[in-house]
Amino acid sequence: MITRYLPTDRFKDLAIPFECVAATVETAAERWFDSGSLTDALLASSAVPGLFPPVELDGLNYYDGGLVNSVPVDHAVRRNATTVLVLQVGRFEQPLRRPERMHEPALIAFEIARRHRFVTTMESLPDGITVHVLPSGNLLKFDDRRQLKWKDLGETPALMDSAREATGKYLSDMGIA
After folding, report:
1. Higher pLDDT, 155 or 125
2. pLDDT band at 144, cuts 50/70/90?
3. Closest to 137 measured CA to CA, from 93, 73, 84
4. Span 118-142, mean pLDDT?
5. What's the distance, CA 102 to chain centroid?
6. CA-CA-CA-CA torsion sign (38, 55, 136, 144)
7. Coil, helix or strand for 118?
8. How far apart are CA 29 and CA 68, in angstroms?
9. Which of 124, 144, 121, 133 is nearest to 93 (CA)?
10. Is the overall model pTM greater than 0.70, yes or no?
11. Coil, strand or helix: which one is 23?
């Protein structure tokens, strides 16, 4: 499915520079991909534990980069960005609650780690860095049961439209677009 929508399989052939991160199983470290096969990098970067097996590349196994750096503002700053637009896939604005169902402890533990990393990164940014966390436009609450239907992508177009609309309004209100 990835190759069907990619304009190329090589990072070097992309019109806009792109990087993605994956978590190395063997070293528990982040690895940034910016060259080679785009398909391999995207598969490694999106291998969600429990849903997909780790992706083996160059003798190492990789899981979703969100495990080690879900919102890589620090990486953007290391790459000399002074303004960062964060299109986050979670809902930082929604509070978490005590887990009640069998599947929830793992989800909430991941979200705690993700949020903690983001907050500590934001607190340690040098002066002169502007970060805009774009609204997700997603009205589903963190614990909405509809999220469990991960194979049902029927709501995807509406969620994308909602995010596009909310982001457009935010950027317009901020005088960015």
Report:
1. 125
2. low
3. 93
4. 86
5. 24
6. positive
7. helix
8. 7
9. 133
10. yes
11. strand
